[in-house]
Amino acid sequence: MKVIITVTEAIEREIWTDVMAMFGRTDDDEMWPNEEFILTEEQARRLGLLH
């Protein structure tokens, strides 16, 4: 299973810092509010998105 999360959703769920680290992004990278990141099931579980 894959889970898609946007920058805005990650910020709202307070996991944006973790998502950035998973994808090697930094504060200097340009990102759009609706930019999507595809997480594996394991990544989503680590972030608390799946139980």
Automatic annotation (TrEMBL):
Protein name stated in the entry: Uncharacterized protein
Organism, as annotated: Paenibacillus phyllosphaerae
Native organism taxonomy: Bacteria, Bacillati, Bacillota, Bacilli, Bacillales
